[in-house]
């Protein structure tokens, strides 16, 4: 049985992720293969003669290094990574010690305490720096796991198509309809507050999202002739999926990974804001926002603002990196 | 067209069934005796057993499953463990409240985002475009509760323009409710602007590069005319999809905003259901959110299919 | 660089003066047009030919000042009827495009807005001229009639996707002619259309030219089309016009080394592979925007010397009428070129009947199921292929030739009742069920080398994997085989470590061929292997295929739509229409006639660069959809020699009408011979 080449509108079921807000669904209609001659095609085919020695990847790497968005993103990530690794060894004050300032509760930002102090007299700057560890312990791993399983699922769905795609697609759809935060909360409240639970739940809920993106990418590759050629050689399905097709969809996967890391930070922070993360006196950012938030009406803004800004900065950084990678991949 | 709608509808029904099954499985993973947790540690064993029998949690899992599925399709979610009142009486008003917020947010976001996207696409790679793209990227990256907290501290506390407790008192007129709802809605606007703007930008850029746009330009149409008459109708399809997905997510995802503003929408209802282990409410609310997502995306898909003459006329050459 | 070809007169409809266009890629300006000059008189048709990257499309678009975002006109002028287009304001440019100049594009389906009805799009062209809506509607209906569309009112109410390719292009032509332009630019207007449809569209253009006084600029890579339609031609190479003159003169007697090379690499005048190899131009085509020394062709020219590398070649008139020019230092040495590259015979012997049969297709059918409708893509095909023989398969869309390829190889399973036999033994219908030996015996070369090679793999890996999988040899022995294979296909060891994207089109196709030959196949199915390649590259690949066949005694099933190529390479030809074989026989017999009426139409549809007059058999109507084949003989609705009462009732069987030559037609061969010798 064979499909006719009809243009099917891209339904929400199989469009790229909301939140993979870095690239758009593929709505092109396949065209004839003719040598590029129109201005638009000339531009896209890259009228530069690439010398044989330059590997394409090296050239991409050079391009991406020059993008300001990428530089800013990496810088932010590096700053927080350093904070996470070195923790309280580099904080100006102890993040947990509330005897430091004596009666210095809720001191507004000043030279000695650039981010002010919180309700219990602790230095907010130190707490923010220390809090990086809690996030970076959990979010990247959750994203990585989610992408790992999502790639497998998406590859299977995209490659085999037909009823496997339909059945799995319905399940993926159903998962996408579920509110991530709530279910993570539910899991944490029944299974405990450990980081493992959070990682597991977030990874499980990210898998269908990633699968959808990978599926689209695989669909675009599946009908290319090199896949047919592999079948003519007698290659097994697993070989075709993971040795032939996978390298060619690695670009979108990398982009998806960086986006997912951003979303993982987002989700983990929200969870701890809602009380499902590390408990006080942990300097976890979401928890800090949750605590500090109580005092906002008293115009004590710094205990909320700085941890909130830290969360925002990390998510923005992840998305900046993702956007840069994607722009470079699109252009090549 | 009819065939497409039927197919899509059928797949939505199947997905709904899968969704209900998943929710049922998740909810029944929770260890513990329902009767015990509701009646407390000091209640008598017989009372607990009677309670459990009453609400049906001592029946075999399969029969509970079938009841559960049947109920989903009749939209009867049972009674809350905590308050004993019907779940529907709890979640539908909450849904309505979240809906008001969502409506206000989208009325503001959609025109602004789409316009920004078109604006940026026409000036692709120039400074204004990079600004729009990066601003959108940044704002949509910020978790909604962060934006909500920041907005609250500035608008509500500092400048006293909004209300910290955003639930409008009952009986307030529609116009009177606006000051209450505006600040939380703005938090949502900030969260969703970026994504919708970038999608509409991408759609328009694609349209600008299309051959038919070239034909229209070569006919002698001005840039504005090409955009209005030719590009927009083709370029907005992906944006519509995205908006529908965001609507679906909105109801389940704005827990953060609702908590910050103490707004009793669906999100905070679900939140309290989780903390108090009120399974029927949680189950009902999650299913409701799922149904809204699916309806929203279904409508968007059908609409897009309608816009595409190839599907609408269902004739293949 | 200001030597112009023909001094533009004030009355020239289009005059390009020294036009220089650059594209800015990654911050660097790449020169795409290096001072292009030519002029077209009103009512004249001028053709621009060249291979990819020569800049002919850029020239066409620059004439209407339409360049991509990263392109700009650096110097020079474009004058249309005296008006300087390059200096126009936006408002003037809009008016210019609406009233003075029009364009017809390559892909008509994409050129129109898919979600607006034809009527509205066509009416738009008229309202832009200031007509009222109702007047515009009338004009639109008339225009559709002028482009020979039957039932214009119904077409107005349709969407583009509901029309066939030929009809779509007619509509685009109608839109272009709405303003009665002074300049009509056609950019590869028939590429992608079937041959018979293409012929009709070209006929239409010819007729419309006579009716209007527009100057026509035609861009094409197919020299036959240029010759049949254009009065004068300019040959472009690397952004420069290297030769210009009346088309028949340039094609019969080229005066620039590039043009000479280009024409010699085409299979012309019915040449066969048994006579000689095709001449090739050494080196590769420069990528668009490359930096080149003084003479753009110097790196590949057999006549090149120091002068050529240091001094820009002058524009040298040819003949005395002032109509022909060439840009060369040594035009007097052109005759040496032919001597320097004498015809090289291929050491190939025409297969005799003594060769054993290698492949047999019996009652091969394939029916697809689409939306609960059965689509017979292949119907009852019987074919035989001998060892070392090339069987050419020609046909238009819907003919089933791709399905045939897939069914032979097992990518699609044939319907029950049909069989594919290798050396007399039936092979499994599905590739995955076949033995390794069967798999290695039958391989494929695809049309598009970009999609046929895994872009993430190195060439070495591509070949190694095929060697390992098909022959079972591993490790060092496999490596040795890969290197031998590469050498055999004239790939250097350096190429082995590259990725496909670093190779030119011709090299990629070589790798694809090497891969197909990795397991010493008996049969290689070639599906349009040179259609995506430039002419000069095509010659090298065809030579390569012929050489490999001579050495390895491989048989080819060669699918193509190019009659010149199939005549060159194939020993026997099968003509397919709607999944059925209409005619099959030795190449010479098929080309000399008498033919099946469909073959006759195909042969006369394609304009030849040799300018040989062909009997114009015009086919009416469209190719029917395979899902709805006509009754009786599937060709009868369009057949100019249809016998009413017979042809629509019974399908003729495929019968041998001469030794080795079979036809599916009710008309006896002697009658066909008589009918076809008259025209």
Q: What features would you describe in this structure?
A:
The complex is a heterotrimer of chains A (332), B (317) and C (679). Chain A is an all-alpha fold and 332 residues long. Chain A has 12 helices and no strands. Mean pLDDT of chain A is 76; it is low at 1-54. Chain B is mainly alpha-helical. The two termini of chain B are 15 Å apart. The mean pLDDT of chain B is 82. Chain B has helices at residues 2-27, 34-39, 45-55, 61-74, 87-122, 127-141, 144-158, 174-208, 211-219, 223-235, 237-253, 255-260, 266-275, 279-307, 309-313. Chain C is of the alpha/beta class and 679 residues long. The two termini of chain C are 50 Å apart. An 8-stranded mixed β-sheet of chain C has the order 6-7-8-3-9-10-12-11, sandwiched between helices. In chain C, helix 17 crosses helix 18 (475-488). Chain C is 33% helix and 22% strand. The interface between A and B is large, with 65 and 83 residues.
Descriptive terms for the model:
heterotrimer, B: 317 residues, mainly alpha, 78% helix, 0% strand, C: 679 residues, alpha/beta, 8-stranded mixed beta sheet, 24 strands, globular
Give the uncertain stretches of chain A in residue-range form: 1-54
Find the count of extended strands of chain B (DSSP E, 2+ residues): 0
How far apart the termini of chain A lie comes to: 35 Å
- Write down how many β-strands of chain A occur, each being a DSSP E stretch of 2 or more residues: 0
Q: How much of the sequence of chain B is in beta strands?
A: under 5%
Radius of gyration of chain A: 24 Å
Unreliable residue runs of chain B? none
Number of helices of chain A: 12
Number of helices of chain B: 15
Please identify the oligomeric state. heterotrimer
Derived structural class of chain A = mainly alpha
User: Any idea what the shape of chain B is?
Assistant: globular
Largest interface here, residues on each chain? A-B, 65 and 83 residues
Main sheet record of chain A: none
The outline of chain A comes out as elongated
Q: For the CA atoms, what is the radius of gyration of chain B?
A: 24 Å
The sequence of SSEs of chain B as H and E is HHHHHHHHHHHHHHH
